[in-house]
Design goal:
It is built from 5 helices and 2 strands; from the N terminus they run H-H-H-H-H-E-E. By secondary structure, it is mainly α. Strand 1 and strand 2 form a beta hairpin.
Length: 116
Amino acid sequence: MTSQPSDSSAQGFYSPSHLEPEESVGYLMRKVMSSIRTQADAQLSTHDLTYAQWLPLFKISRCDQATVASLARDLETDPASMTRAMDRLEAKGLVVRERSTTDRRVVRLTLTPDGD
């Protein structure tokens, strides 16, 4: 049986007088993710891409039915931001939009040979 910290010790740790932002789990996770993105951006810069541009390309390569809406959901961003990202990737010749022949409301995203 594992012992649980007493409520008073947990309350003391999270009290305003003891809480240091740089020791919080959320802060540390954010620092780690920021470092990962910075390193990824450095590696991807040789391909004229950023991590934010590469991630949708990766998702499209793994999904045969990708749409702006599905990418926005998967990457936890809003559809308007994803549309702007797809505009940039399309301008770079990495992505094409193709309207569905069965449902004209649906626009599928596919990679070009350069985007693959």
